[in-house]
Amino acid sequence: MKKIFAVIMSAAVLCSAMSAAFAAAGELSRVNITSPEAAETINATYPSGNEGTMEEVSINALMTELEDLTATKDIVQEIKISSTSATSLPVNYWLKLDLPEESDYAPADTYSAIDYYSIRITNERGAVLYDDATADAAEGENTKSINLGTLNNDKNRSDSATYMIYVSVNDEVDASELSDSPSDVVWSIAYTDDTAQFAPTASPAAGSTATPQNPSSGSTAVPSRATATPEVTVRPTASAAAKTITIRVTTNSDVKDSINPGSYRLVGSGHVVVTDSEGSKKAEFDLTTADNTQSVTTLREGDVVTVTGNNDAYVQFRAPSATATPRATATPRATTRPTATPRATARTTTRPTATAKANPQTGDNAPIIGVSIIGTMALAAVIYIGVTSKKNKNGNK
Amino acid sequence: MSAPKRIILILSLCIVVGCGAYLGKYFYDSYRAAQDISELQHLVEAGNSGGSAGEEELQGGNEAAQDNAGNEQAAAEAEQYAPNGMLQGYYDAYQKNNDMVGWLKISGTKINYPVMHRPGDNEYYLHRNFEKEYQYSGLPFLDGDCDISLPSDNLIIYAHNMRDGSMFAHLLDYEDEDFFRENPTISFDTNYKRGTYAIFAVFSTKVGSSNEFEYYSKTMFDDKADFDAYVKQALDRSYYETYVDVIYGDKLITLSTCSYHRSNERTVVMAKKIS
Prior knowledge:
The structure holds 2 protein chains of 2 kinds. Chain A has 3 helices and 21 strands. Chain A is of the alpha+beta class. Chain A folds into 2 domains: 26-234, no CATH class; 243-350, no CATH class. The longest helix of chain A is centred in the C-terminal third of the chain and has 29 residues, at 368-396. By secondary structure, chain B is α+β, with helices and mostly antiparallel strands. Chain B has 2 domains: 1-85; 97-275, Beta Barrel (Sortase, Chain: A), CATH 2.40.260.10. Chains A and B meet through α1, β17 and α3 of A and α1 and β7 of B.
């Protein structure tokens, strides 16, 4: 009897230890960052609920489109952040740009290599999260932090968000006069679940500016708490000048501002009218940054897509499914992009068209049968050992 | 008891406890999911029958009008609507989660669920419940390429085939022709309007195989030829003849779930809108 009791207690202790190990392991939150244009995946874990700590991970390996950035060609890099919060705490995220470790930066510099890049970030629904053109971010700094918002906000352990990072060359910066090469700038994602200490600033909206709170000052170790009080300057709202964007649907690549026939998800800002080759209206709907209306539309040869709106009007033709893998890089087509003050020239961005689409895995992969069989076998072993031990004991008596 | 026996006993006890905990959690989660869905069903039914937070009173003759399946106009007039035009019951649910775009019900099965949608996203509701919390069984969701407001030519809805019989597990009942004869229609309502669809094809296809039918790639059809080719593929693969005519211009609905006959196989039920 004593032996059986000792065995049961040992088993209980072992199970508790295993549970504690699992629980301890479960206190690690995880970040997974991917880009459809890059082969690599960035994975990181960090202890959940660690006060006063901000983590950071470099995403230079994902910023593959930067290689194609030139003074006349903008790029867009899509990144997806998947966030698992072990204790369901909300997690704040930032995109950070830092100068390289071996930097020749001097505080007196008018511009640093970071200023070479003019950045605009939208979420997957096309809402503008950040725009250098209106943010009035400080120049000549050795670090730059752009708030990407908060994930795991609904106390859910798993959450994700997709960001479109539009990068263009800042016209005001002469790269030859910079202390560092722009290609040496370190792009990273900073994150923390200590949202009390590291509160995100509100994304600067068009027409207003705010100095972003820097969650760190160039160090990747435990950073100091942000103390600067943001200055908020409200600029007069730009008058809503009418703007019309016309995109023709054609396989003829010589036609400017055109796109191949196919199915697209239209995102952006403005009022969309799609007409066919005879001028008959096929579809009409609104795209707004506030309401993030999206629509999947099939465009055929000869169709014309007209977007009208204010100066911020724009349209993107995106792959119907954001989760399509693999993505093929088709011949780039130009899409017009709005130019915010003070830019005067329209820039073009290229957008690959996705081809493959995955069929969601809708099976129940829980190994119920396997677990039941194993559990039954283990129970049988317990009973057998218990019975034979008792028999042996009775036999010895 | 010898030392090896003791070790085996301890290990076996741990395994029994572990397996018991896993199975207990699985069935408890299943029970909770069913409870949550049941509450949602009651909320929707109460709202649509006039006894909800909308505080609409039942109109006289409401039940009689709804019993008369052929009298669509009377049924429409007897519906309860929220101020924004949504059917009241769906509006009540929509206020809890505005990713809900409709409701799917198939008589003769347990399929009676909200349909969720996030544009461009075919993963979010694979493992999330109506409260957007993690739940393995997830919820039926509309393909991210679809647009409920256009609407798309082909609404594709996915859901898990759960071993506890929930979600789209009962879709596989349609592999039996007798079951189809008894339950030839699907009810899919958007938040604003009722909809009934007649099933015209039931088939299975193995994803990634050389003769795979990529039924999930088409939410809009370019032209009649494109539509006819798509429907022909479905009809050719169908387990049985349904004698339902499908012509260009018909709005389609496609229900998809995993089947366990072969690895990576899907069972698909296609229907066309009739009202």
